[in-house]
Amino acid sequence: MLSFENAPPFSAPLRFFLTAPLFAVLAGLLLVIEGPVVFASRWTPGALAATHLLTVGFMLQVMLGALIQVLPVVAGADLPRPLALARAVHVGLTGGGLLLVGGFWFGLPWALAGGALLLGLTVFLFLIVMWRALLGVPSTSPSIRGIKFALLGLAVVVGLGLLMALALAEGWPLPLPLLADLHAGWGLAGWAGVLLAAMAYVVVPMFQLTPGYPARPSWWFPLAILAALLVWSIGVVFDLPWLVRASQLAAAVAGITFAGLTLRLQGKRRRAKADATYRYWQMGMMASILALLMLGIAAVWPAASELDGWTIGFGILIVAGGFLSFIVGMLYKIVPFLAWMHLQNYGATKATAPAMPRLMPDVEVNRQMQAYGVALVLLLAAVVFPDWLGRLAGLAFALANGGLAWVLFRAVGRYRQAWLDMTLKLAIKKK
Q1: CA 274 to chain centroid
Q2: DSSP annotation string for 340-379
Q3: What are 5-42's pLDDT values in tens digits?
């Protein structure tokens, strides 16, 4: 049961949703500037900066904004002063993300350490508020328990990130490559993957009109992911490479199982028309399956990860092809739905809110989706032909995400116009 009466003000999550595409545009422009250098290695300053523009600037922005919206509705948690929390977290994420990216790109230790500290403080403030809100909320559904586990994963990934950023800035002797892999594993699987699954249990049946997820895999998926990550962490601490590889293989199998289950449910949807959200999720699932297959192959055959373009290709598939596709697909349902819901509540029975397709027309959404599909293909091709396609792929990616920003800002403009029109109608009726 969803408690929409507990929803926070629309502006609370909206500020995150409108900021995130701008970070993705910056990532595309960085590729235009750096060109083929970014595709040479995951350790280049440009590659590190672009990665964090997408993971911190885009993914983390949307996911924290979505949690501020979702937690009171899905879990019934009492979130005090959600607008004040949203303002503080948004400023910290934006400023900390820009500082961190600048530190990576320009090699500035003070910016790297300052950005990491600001992000760490911001996220831990968010976590404290979330955990206080969740105290006493029973895990009565896979979504609620998944959110709790995802918050635990977020704490670990931010802690590891803060440790590595300070080690880079201060020159501490740490095994950074091993920690970077573990940081990525906790971030992509323990935080983003578990939260994605927890949200999918609600939004896929709700917006794509599919059957509900089966109970048993829904309850066990986050446990399987967290168990694999804990074993991975033990393997790193005690220098047991075979244990690390075994846990990576287990995480890959769990992720592929979830993706396959979601594709099967989508095949049973009751809506005949395949809209942009459905297409984005299809693209995201296929890209994620390919990326997880690469992870599984590298776990069984470690030499594969040393092949030219293997790691960069994996990163593009799992981040740009997988998580960004899922997030954009959900934004195209969540933003117009929230706008319609707030307008409907404002007008009550005296003024009718415009339908969701009027707030965000399909023609705009479909054009942006096509542009994003072209950008993703170019990014993958640039892994093989970086000299020819690196800058072109960056330009296409910047334009596609600029299109996302345009679609979202247009929807907000229509929402505000509808609010003014409804205010006028209500004033006339009172007279």
Answers
A1: 22
A2: HHHHHHHHTTTSPPPPHHHHS-HHHHHHHHHHHHHHHHHH
A3: 678 999 999 999 999 999 999 999 999 999 999 999 99
Domain residue limits at 368? 4-416
Question: 304-321 burial, b for 16+ CB within 10 Å, e for fewer?
Answer: beeeeebbbbbbbbbbbb
Determine the 3-state secondary structure of 403 from DSSP: helix
- Residue 37 inside a domain? The answer is yes
Instruction: Kindly list the distances between the CA atom of residue 123 and the CA atoms of 58, 149, 369, in Å, as whole numbers in the listed order.
Output: 15, 15, 31
Query: To the nearest 10°, the Cα dihedral for 14, 16, 17, 20?
Result: 160
- The C-alpha atoms of residue 156 and residue 82 are separated, in whole angstroms, by 24
Confidence band (pLDDT; 50, 70, 90) for 270? confident
- For residue 216, being part of any structural domain is answered with yes
Mean of the per-residue pLDDT values of the chain: 94
List of residues 6+ apart from 303 with CB closer than 8 A: none
Q: What are phi and psi of 360, to 5 degrees?
A: -140, 90
Number of structural domains in the chain: 1
Q: What is the pTM of this model?
A: 0.96
Residue 89 has a pLDDT of 98
Can you give the CATH number for the domain in which 305 is found? 1.20.210.10
- Map residue 79 onto helix, strand or coil: coil
State how far the alpha carbon of 250 is from the alpha carbons of 44, 131, 227, 228, 300, in Å: 29, 29, 9, 6, 11
Question: What is the rounded distance in angstroms from the CA atom of residue 199 to the CA atom of residue 214?
Answer: 14
Examine residue 428 and state whether it is found in any structural domain, yes or no. Answer: no
310 within a domain of the structure (yes/no): yes
Arithmetic mean of pLDDT, 331-346: 92
3-state secondary structure of 108: coil
Contacts of 50 (CB under 8 A, 6+ apart): 27, 30, 31, 34, 38
What is the structure's pLDDT at 52? 98
